[in-house]
Amino acid sequence: MIVKNYLPAARNSTTVHVRAVDQGADVITGSKVPRPTKERLANDAADALGIAHATMSPQGGTVVSTFLDDLHRAMYGTSTGGVDTYRKAERLLQSLGLTYDPYWDTSEAANWGGGTVTARTYSRIRSALLDTPRCFILNVTDAPVGSKWETDHTSVYRYDATVTGRQPFNDAGPGSRVLYYSTSKSTTNKKHFVGHAEVKYIANNWDPPWEAQLTGYTEFETPVSIDDVAITGWNRQHAITEIDWLTYEAIVVAGGVSPELDVASETPDPGGDVVAERVAKDFPATVPAIHVPTELPLGELPLRPPQIPEYKEAANGRGVVGGPSMPPRSPSDRKKDKVAELRAVEVAIRGLEGDGWTYSADRQKDGVGYDLEFTRAGTTLKVEVKGIQGSHLVFNLTPKEAWRAETDPDWVVVAVTSVLSPSAYTPHLISRDRIAAASRVVTGFRLTL
Q1: Do 87 and 74 fall within a single domain?
Q2: Where are the alpha helices (DSSP H) in 166-297?
Q3: Which of 102, 220, 275, 312 could be joined to 255 by an S-S link, Cβ 3.0–4.6 Å?
């Protein structure tokens, strides 16, 4: 995937979009960013990938859904494969490592706008392509006038439909960066920038009021006076104002801290765990019967020899290429994994019960190489469940599970792809012969010294 230099100031840009610091006057300069339209966000993503701009619907406010396929094809060589607008958006965001949010990214969880893909989706795509978040100034105060909203503004920022700047802030959503501006009504650090943080999630949906859940709040070592900052178009009475990355970065550096936040739940997909929990609660699984063949493979089935990946240094010297990468799972990722696992188990139980099986035992904590037991007409079925957040059948197998696949004729896998999707989750019953024939790649070693 090649991303060319892009109009808004990118995090890794070598071209100065604004004079981040005017050395002559020693003043940080920048401009308020107007709210970008959905078309602008989509076309910025197209420019980043060097493809044709989006086609708009005849009504003018909607990007034609095939543009999502165009973006996916430019990055990965294939279309999304989604059967409708929702699934196209979901697949594209998944490919970028982002959790699809049916409450914000589309109208899937709403009672309006069937098939609508929101500006939020295109904003997330643009930010992911550039590895550059959208940035905002948030007005805060410790004065009584702000007590209704700001009792804990280092972790939550509350606002409603009367707040100027709410629309671009909602459009940007998780992963956005915020600067805290202490207003003239504050008792300390009046008219100073005092810290910064990242938006983890905005609750609940497009209807007010809202709560922006914030993470990684870092207080400036040296508050930055408004006298040292000149932002064209910024009305300090407006509670929320969008600025570009370079202006944000310059103010943070002037405050004596790093623009890269030390976030305990550091993840390229902030808020994904919140979405997962909401979907699991609001979209209970409705599952067709999972049919088990009357005859399963018998005897021993040797697995294919595992492939050991071969790596080499990347051409730019900043990484390695040649094999699978297993990035560390953040606390947020692990929380999402747990929701996926529970939802997959629910799908497996309901689907197999629909085929006439009786759920008889939970073996998940027994360390026996499978998760669930079912019985039917004197037959026992041992089921290993895999909750897969993507749309492809790719999953890990433990040594005990591999042993079961080779030797146990009563053992099967139920893998649920797109398990966190509101409606596109799909259960797959996989028999031992398919496991035996599958490609296996080594992803780790356990050493004893």
Answers
A1: yes
A2: 166-172, 245-254, 272-282
A3: 220
